[in-house]
Amino acid sequence: xxxxxxxxxxxxxxxxxxxxxxxxxxxxxxxxxxxxxxxxxxxxxxxxxxxxxxxxxxxxxxxxxxxxxxxxxxxxxxxxxxxxxxxxxxxxxxxxxxxxxxxxxxxxxxxxxxxxxxxxxxxxxxxxxxxxxxxxxxxxxxxxxxxxxxxxxxxxxxxxxxxxxxxxxxxxxxxxxxxxxxxxxxxxxxxxxxxxxxxxxxxxxxxxxxxxxxxxxxxxxxxxxxxxxxxxxxxxxxxxxxxxxxxxxxxxxxxxxxxxxxxxxxxxxxxxxxxxxxxxxxxxxxxxxxxxxxxxxxxxxxxxxxxxxxxxxxxxxxxxxxxxxxxxxxxxxxxxxxxxxxxxxxxxxxxxxxxxxxxxxxxxxxxxxxxxxxxxxxxxxxxxxxxxxxxxxxxxxxxxxxxxxxxxxxxxxxxxxxxxxxxxxxx
Length: 427
Prior knowledge:
CATH topology of the largest domain: Nuclear Transport Factor 2, Chain: A
CATH class of the largest domain: Alpha Beta
Shape: globular
Mean pLDDT: 80
Number of domains: 3
Number of strands: 23
Helix content: 10-25%
Number of helices: 6
Strand content: 35-45%
CATH architecture of the largest domain: Roll
Order of helices and strands: HEHHEEEEEHHEEEEEEEEEEEEEEEEHE
Structural class: alpha+beta
Largest sheet: 10 strands, antiparallel
Distance between the termini: 38 Å
């Protein structure tokens, strides 16, 4: 829009209209009985040259997106998950081809991008190692890459939010990285079923590490503490690493939040079919029992083990398609069917840790669309995992309790402050 030839009278009206926004209020008055008929009135119109205003995507709707690099990920995969448009992806890849380090993506690390609502990539950061940062910044319609050695500064960040719809929607609104949101969901997964238990008005607070270099955010670190109020009941999680290197999340009184079994093999996806004695099978077109829980999710979504286990079976099996059976402490076992593929190293006899990815959602065997078929078995018999009271785990060792209490007290105090002040963000 070009304001260069707008009449000055209209510009003055515009200026007066905007004065209150700058904290200025002016009052004008005329004394009673003042005669104004004799005043000569003259209208002056004068063109005033003003600088042109360039309408650009100036960051009013920017979002910071953080993505964890999975095995097999490529740069276009990561940019796509961040919401970067195809034109910027092509331009970015032209720059990436001239920066070999940028092409060496290490699974487990994260990338950080500032992306506008229209899909324009404004900034991209990748910690190629603990002390090497690659920054790709926008320069017009192209990108420029810079690699530098850094020493990042860790800062604690505090955020709060309220559930209006989904967990990720609420954490996005509170400017909480997806990585931290996932860590919070993981920490509380033994107490809260994020498929079924969330309610509008549920409240949460988090304290987490963020790493900065020269005042710029580089990446998020660990979730240090969290609090979640679900349906009126409040849960707390405090991270603690003992002198032997074992780490986990605990309640304020030292009870471990790591349950023997997670409530779900996937934190956030929709239950499409529950455990029932009579269900109309969408493929066979007959009524039959459904001795498991189906989680609808896109093909390729990671599936995790709900508990420490040994792989009992990994292969094709009838209507299950690609199936993994995990044997836990007797008498428990779990089954994961319709997988598109198995995770690396998943073979009979392999030892698996709780939360480890064992495969990926697919539609093999008898199925009408991509989903995970999950079964919980006791002595080989299928039980409804959503209705069972699952075994709990052991508390913190007594010899570490004093050290934990000293560590937990300031974090618990910050969570209380967040709860009482209802801050959306604080750093």
